[in-house]
Design a protein that fits this description.
globular, 36% helix, 149 residues
Length: 149
């Protein structure tokens, strides 16, 4: 998927609120400062038991502090298939767009959007997921707490 896709060519669902949220997600995805990586063995950095998580969003990574890193766990015990990875991407993008929302609100929104997005909108989001997996584990720096699922 080209990062320079015109927003007039994005798929629509017909529902104004769903389309607005989808447009916000596409704007975040097309920014040069958004990086999406598939990383195996993704664990919660705040959990002393190091439990496996589906995804992780680090909003303050990078030297300038303005880069958004989204990590998706491709392991079968976290996300069974690419469709579940899209749901995880929806969850992490909701954290970016609605940064002050509580985790339970983000989970509700994720469930609603997963049902309301059309097949074309899901395919559009799936195109932003990389096919390759990186081995480098995301590092937590200076007390920065990434938002995890």
């Amino acid at each position: 998927m080209s990062r320079h896709t015109k927003l007039t060519h994005i798929p629509r669902s017909g529902h104004p609120v769903i389309d607005w949220i989808f447009g916000q997600f596409v704007q975040v995805l097309t920014r040069e400062t958004t990086i999406i990586r598939r990383t195996r063995r993704l664990t919660n950095p705040d959990d002393p038991h190091r439990r496996v998580i589906r995804g992780l969003m680090d909003p303050l990574a990078g030297p300038s502090g303005r880069t958004i890193h989204i990590f998706i766990n491709p392991a079968k015990d976290a996300n069974r298939d690419r469709d579940e990875e899209v749901e995880t991407l929806i969850h992490e993008l909701a954290h970016v767009v609605m940064e002050r929302a509580l985790e339970r609100d983000i989970l509700r929104l994720e469930r609603t959007l997963a049902k309301e997005f059309t097949v074309h909108q899901r395919r559009f989001l799936k195109a932003f997921l990389p096919r390759h997996t990186v081995k480098r584990y995301p590092m937590v720096r200076g007390g920065v707490r990434p938002v995890s699922l």
